[in-house]
Every structure is written in structure tokens, then in C-alpha cells.
Write a structure and sequence with these properties.
This protein is an alpha/beta fold. The protein folds into two domains: 155 residues, Medium-chain alcohol dehydrogenases, catalytic domain (Quinone Oxidoreductase, Chain A, domain 1); 150 residues, NAD(P)-binding Rossmann-like Domain (Rossmann fold, 3-Layer(aba) Sandwich), CATH 3.40.50.720. It has nine helices and 15 strands. The strands form three sheets. Strands 3, 4, 5, 6, 7, 14 and 15 form a seven-stranded mixed β-sheet that branches. Strands 10-9-8-11-12-13 form a six-stranded parallel β-sheet, with helices on both faces. α2 packs across α3 and α2 packs across α8. Bound molecules: NADP nicotinamide-adenine-dinucleotide phosphate. The site of NADP nicotinamide-adenine-dinucleotide phosphate has 32 residues, from α2, α3 and β15.
Length: 343
């Protein structure tokens, strides 16, 4: 069957980066959009989610998900609209979120596991919020804070990457739960945003080099939950301020993702022993069966104005290689998304 779509444009992984991804690690590719087969759909991508995890997926080696192969379309989450359907599950015009990859069109079986498309209702929240607070980062914050962090009212929660997608929601949800919330972020503007716009109690600018003093000042009762998005020295410093039975959520370690030398563990780990504390890794996909529950609660908080979903939108599919780097240079405020097309 022929179709009338313009050529599909894709970014393929051309090489495994050493350090920060470089332009030559990508190959721009064009090919015809495959028509929907029986049981299949074609999705026009409107927004792509740019995530720190994408850097890990470019590496060889064992992880929680298989690496992207050389010559394969780069894996990425995204939101799109169904533009052709031969499946009873989706109708033309439905909005879907899933993992279409870094391309303008996705075509394949409607029940493709890797793409994992599900319908979303844009009357409930705008498209970009479905990639943020109601999407993967929001789910990470929700389950990481509550299930792994076991945060309780009255406790002190510290979160790094505080002005980013996950950190922003962690802090806002923790405030809503009645916790004292102290963020750690890069730069005075991001810290001001966390306090003035998101309601954090305090935010420490790690680029000003005062994390230890900031924790002492802003966490007078110590730290009960540390939600770690960055790893490295900041994790080591927070370990010196934890309370008895503290919980440390190992969500990410963005400070290490582009390291060319082997990653070093925290030297202050014996603080876990002294404080009978726990450090636990999490992968959001383990909670997939419970996403609807978290989406319903977060959507309600959003409607009530109790939390905000803040996105940083970069326009233009061809901007992908440069836009991805913004995450590692701290140039995003809130969830970084790439606008690929108008609805
Ligand atoms: N475990 C899971 O299932 C899961 C799911 C989603 C995300 N994550 C992890 O959660 C973390 C946050 O992800 P996100 O999507 O919310 O990204 P994000 O926070 O929106 O963006 C990344 C931010 O990281 C900060 N950063 C970059 N390099 C840094 C460094 N060397 N040291 C300290 N901070 C640095 C920058 O903010 P500053 O300007 O403040 O430096 C940057 O804006 C990442 O580690 C990610 O891998 C894990």
C-alpha cells in the first residue's frame, strides 16, 4: 500500500560516544514511512522527550534495558498522533505516548512492546505535561519518593537536580505530603525558581560550592530522605548529614554519565552503617502496572494547582543532537522536550 506522508527523518546511532555525544555519533537518515499493516498504526511524532538516560542507552554493556544498536534509530520517549490505523485499539486522531524513537514517524504493530503506545487525553493536561509530570519523570518522582524513599510528613527531604524534570516533581510532591524540602541545583536562578515558583523551603546552589554548609544551614534536623539524581560529590556530601534510618533513593547519577574514567563510589558510605540507613536503586519501569494510579493523583494535584508541570521546549527536529547536550550542561529548566511538529 502506498501512502502520502513526507519522507520519514530519523537520527540513527552512528557510533558509541566517548564522553559527551558528538555530532559524528549521529547519522541523519531519510526513508519512506512504512504503511500500516493489518493490526498496525502510523504515529506522527509531535514531541520527543529528551532524557539523561538516553546517554546510558548509547553505551555497550549490560543495563536495565538493551543498548541501542549501531545503525538503529535512537530510542526516545515521545508523544504523537495516530495518522493511520488498521488496529481496533487506536483510531486516527488519537494522541499516544510511548517510545517512538528519534524520528518524525513511527510505523509498526499497535501492540509493539518496545514502543508501548498508550492513549492520552489532551483535555486532561497539555501534550508536554504528558511527557513530564504525567509521564515518565513524574512516575519516577512519585514512586521513588513514596515507595523507595518512604517519605513521611514532618521529615526532611533533600533532592538534587531540583530544577529538572524529576527533581521538580519530587520536591513539589514532598511539600504536598508535609515534608521540609531542600533542593540542590546549579545556579542562583534555578534555586530561586525552586523556592519562589515551586515552594521548596530552600535550595542550595552547588555551583557556588557550598553544599556542606547549605545542608547544615537548611537541614537543621538532618536529612531523612535524599533523592539522588546526580551522584558524585553531592551524594558523598549529603551522606555526611543523614539521620538514623535515612533512605537514599538512587534514581540517577548524571554527574557520571559522560565520565571517561571508571565511576567512583561514595567514600562516605560508612555513614549508612553508623546511621542504620538504606540506599536503594530504582527503575521507574518496575512500577508500570501502577502508572494509572499515579497519573490520576498527579493530574488531580495539577488541576488543584498544588503542583506545576514546567517544560523547557526546544523547537525543531534537526536540533536533536545539540538539544540533548543541554541536559548535561544544565541548560534546561524543567523537563526538556523537543517539539517535532504541530498537531
Ligand atoms: N531511575 C529511573 O527510573 C529514572 C527515571 C528518570 C530519570 N532518572 C534520572 O533522574 C535524573 C534526572 O533526570 P531528569 O530527566 O529529571 O533530568 P533533568 O534534571 O531535567 O536534567 C538534567 C539536569 O541535571 C543537572 N546536571 C547535569 N550535569 C550535572 C552534574 N555534573 N552535576 C550535577 N547536576 C548535573 C543539570 O541541572 P543543574 O543546572 O542543576 O546542574 C541538568 O539540568 C537523571 O540522573 C536521570 O538519569 C532515573
Amino acid at each position: 500500500m502506498t501512502n502520502t506522508f513526507p519522507p520519514n527523518q530519523q537520527f540513527l546511532l552512528a557510533a558509541r560516544p566517548n564522553g559527551l555525544p558528538q555530532p559524528h555519533d549521529w547519522q541523519f537518515h531519510e526513508q519512506a514511512v512504512a504503511a500500516a499493516e493489518e493490526g498496525g498504526i502510523v504515529v506522527k511524532v509531535l514531541y520527543l522527550s529528551l532524557d539523561p538516560a538516553m546517554r546510558g542507552w548509547m553505551n555497550e554493556g549490560k543495563s536495565y534495558i538493551r543498548p541501542v544498536a549501531i545503525g538503529e534509530v535512537m530510542r526516545a520517549g515521545g508523544l504523537g498522533v495516530v495518522v493511520a490505523s488498521r488496529s481496533p485499539r487506536f483510531a486516527v486522531g488519537d494522541h499516544v505516548v510511548g517510545a517512538p524513537g528519534v524520528q518524525r514517524y513511527w510505523s509498526g504493530p499497535a501492540d509493539d512492546k518496545a514502543a508501548g503506545f498508550v492513549k492520552v487525553d489532551l483535555r486532561m493536561a497539555p501534550a508536554t505535561a504528558w511527557l513530564n509530570i504525567l509521564g515518565m519523570p513524574g512516575m519516577t518522582a512519585w514512586f521513588g519518593l513514596r515507595e523507595v524513599g518512604q517519605a513521611r510528613a514532618g521529615e526532611t527531604v533533600v533532592v538534587s537536580g531540583a530544577a529538572g524534570a524529576v527533581g521538580m516533581t519530587v520536591g513539589q510532591v514532598a511539600k504536598h505530603m508535609g515534608c521540609r524540602v531542600v533542593g540542590i541545583a546549579g545556579g542562583a536562578d534555578k534555586c530561586r525558581f525552586a523556592v519562589e515558583q515551586l515552594g521548596f523551603d530552600a535550595c542550595i546552589d552547588y555551583k557556588a560550592g557550598k553544599v556542606a554548609a547549605g545542608l547544615k544551614e537548611h537541614c537543621p534536623q538532618g536529612v531523612d530522605v535524599y533523592f539522588d539524581n546526580v551522584g558524585g560529590e553531592i551524594l558523598d556530601t549529603v551522606l555526611t548529614r543523614i539521620n538514623m534510618k535515612a533512605r537514599i533513593v538512587i534514581c540517577g547519577a548524571i554527574s557520571q554519565y559522560n565520565a571517561t574514567a571508571p565511576v567512583k563510589g561514595p567514600s562516605n558510605y560508612l555513614s549508612l552503617l553508623v546511621n542504620r540507613a538504606r540506599m536503594e536503586g530504582m527503575v521507574v519501569f518496575d512500577y508500570a502496572a501502577r502508572y494509572p494510579e499515579a497519573v490520576a493523583e498527579l493530574a488531580q494535584l495539577l488541576r488543584q494547582g498544588a503542583v506545576k508541570s514546567h517544560e523547557h521546549v526546544v523547537e525543531g527536529f534537526e536540533q536533536f543532537p545539540q538539544a540533548l547536550l543541554m541536559l548535561f550542561e544544565g541548560r534546561n529548566l524543567g523537563k526538556l522536550v523537543l517539539k517535532v511538529a504541530d498537531a
